[in-house]
Amino acid sequence: MASGVGHKYIVFGLSPDNTEIVVTKTSSDNSYETFLADLPEAECRWAIYDFEFERPGEGKRNKLLFVTWAPDDAKIKQKMLFASSKDALRRSLVGISTEIQGTDYSEVAYESVLDKASRGSH
């Protein structure tokens, strides 16, 4: 992910006319809470997040996460557009090790994501 060098996360959305995937936010902020704050309550997004965690006896690990954010309050049409566009974006990204799907904040909470990321460690 050459364009992601120096970024902790990148958030993607659809253009206003829903014809292309666009970057809506890039950040080098290390706070997971800041990342969650950039996921709107009622709009779908995709994100790539460089997730860093510690495993007992193994030290720090990094996982590149692909997050699909489709909150319950998003419009049905937007959810359908995001679902149908996801694979094209996902295929264009290299190095993703874990996919996270979220429909509410509990599903993308740090502990939940840590559990998924650390289970799939290699």
From TrEMBL:
Question: Main localization of the protein?
Answer: nucleus
Q: Which residues form the ADF-H domain?
A: 1-118
Its lineage opens with: Eukaryota, Fungi, Dikarya, Basidiomycota, Agaricomycotina
Subcellular localization: Nucleus matrix
Superkingdom of the source species? Eukaryota
Question: Which terms are listed as keywords in the entry?
Answer: Actin-binding
> Pfam families annotated for this entry?
Cofilin_ADF
Q: Does the keyword Phosphoprotein belong to this entry? A: no
Write down the species.
Somion occarium
Q: What family name appears in the similarity comment?
A: Belongs to the actin-binding proteins ADF family.
Kindly indicate where the leader peptide sits in this chain: none
The protein's name is Cofilin
Write down the PANTHER family for this protein, in alphabetical order: COFILIN-RELATED (PTHR11913)
Q: Which CDD domains match?
A: ADF_cofilin_like
